[in-house]
Amino acid sequence: MPSNLGPGPTSLEDVGFFGDERVDGLIKRVTVLEKAKGEMEGKLKASEADLKETKENLKQVEAENVVLKNEVIAMQDQIEDVKAGNNALNEAIDELLVENYDLNEENMTISNANEILQKEIEDLKVKDENKSKQIEMLYAVIEDRLGINVRAAFDDIEIRRAEAQRMEKEQKDAEEAAAALKDKGKGVVVDNEEILGSSSQQEQQQPNVEVNVAEVEVNVENALVPALLFTLVGEPKLVYYSREDSARRIEVERRRLKAKEAKKAQAIEVVDEEEDDEDEEDDDFKDIDDFHESDDDKGDDDDQGGNGGALIVRPPGADNVDDYLNDEHNEEKEDA
Fold it and tell me: CB under 8 Å to 119, separation ≥6 — which residues?
């Protein structure tokens, strides 16, 4: 027996036959592993719950993602529309820029032309001032050499022109009135031929009517004569008026012409009214023709009753025409 062996176990219990220490370590390790297993199972359950929740969240995220995709698609469509509108705006802006460029060029051209016109206007103003000075000098020389007032002479010429126009208008109005009276006189003669009943009355009345028409023609001709009787006596002299007097004379002539026109219109209205009254006169003349019997003559047309049987018909409106052609009467009305 070796001598270095120590004292060995003295009993069975002292012999480590079954390895209790190892078993205890294994038991401890198994306990730790079971504990870890429980923890891991708890963690696994928690992980499964988290996974389930994560899956639900993922589903929600997927649904939200679908909505967002649709919104993105709509936004892309809107972006395309905005791009198209932007392109159209860019084209319009390009056109406006081109038009603006053209307008700027036209503005420059107009500005240059305006400057040229302003220079021409200034030159014309200078020329006008020079012409005005020359005209003033010319007027001064004429008035000094000829001894006349140019303004007064011009006003006198205007007055004479107005007077000539007035006389011409009066003559024309008188001729028209004479023509109207001639036509009216012819109508009266025809009516007398229809009105007169017996042959003796026709023979006696026809000359009287013609005499009345001739009187009217003579009156009209006499009215025209004064316009042609102006004769120059002695040497003509210029009568100088002030500017106020000349304006007053021109205004008087205008008023006189206006009054003549109004009187002419009244004369024409009188002639029209006389034509309207012809029917009534025809009825009156018919009553005269139908009256054949009376207490004295018994239908006889001789001269025993002091009546020659002549029926003198005077064209109506002759007095009005004479008054119209009477200058003194017209001047009295104008003064009134």
Answer: none
